[in-house]
């Protein structure tokens, strides 16, 4: 486990807010992308300990995508009726 990951895990476990953690890391010289990536490793759930996200989680920096599926009224799964 890296120093950054250990710090974030311990800070979250101590109940320190993500904003405060981010601010302290910025002041210490960590890059914004490193901070964001490390904070994204832990889910924002109501639990007394930091809950890690799965390693293959889509919540990686730069991989936050939204998919919108448009469907026409009266069609199934967005397919077109030609009849």
What do you see in this structure?
With 83 residues, this protein is mainly alpha-helical. It has one domain. It is built from 3 helices and 2 strands, in the order H-H-H-E-E. Strands 1-2 form a two-stranded antiparallel sheet. A hairpin with a 7-residue loop joins strand 1 (42-43) and strand 2. Helix 2 (18-27) runs antiparallel to helix 3. The N and C termini lie far apart (60 Å). Mean pLDDT is 81; it is low at 64-70.
- Oligomerization category of the chains in this entry: single chain
Order of helices and strands: HHHEE
Number of domains: 1
End-to-end Cα distance, whole Å, is 60 Å
Major beta-sheet overview: 2 strands, antiparallel
Spatial arrangement of strands, main beta sheet: 1-2
Radius of gyration: 19 Å
- Per the principal axes of the C-alpha atoms, what is the gross shape? extended
The percent range for helix content is 25-40%
Mean pLDDT across every amino acid position: 81
Secondary structure tally, helices: 3
Structural class: mainly alpha
Low-confidence stretches: 64-70
Strand residue percentage: under 5%
Can you count the beta strands?
2
From the structure above, extract its key features.
about 80 residues, mainly alpha, two-stranded antiparallel ribbon, 3 helices, 2 strands, about 35% helix
Summarize the structure.
This protein has helices at residues 3-13, 18-27, 32-40; strands at residues 42-43, 51-52.
């Amino acid at each position: 486990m890296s120093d950054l990951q250990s710090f974030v895990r311990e800070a979250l476990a101590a109940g320190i807010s993500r904003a405060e953690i981010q601010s302290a890391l910025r002041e210490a010289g960590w890059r914004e992308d490193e901070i964001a990536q490390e904070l994204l490793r832990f889910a924002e759930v109501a639990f007394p300990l930091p809950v890690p996200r799965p390693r293959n989680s889509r919540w990686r920096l730069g991989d936050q995508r939204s998919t919108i599926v448009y469907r026409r009224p009266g069609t199934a799964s967005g397919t077109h009726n030609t009849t």
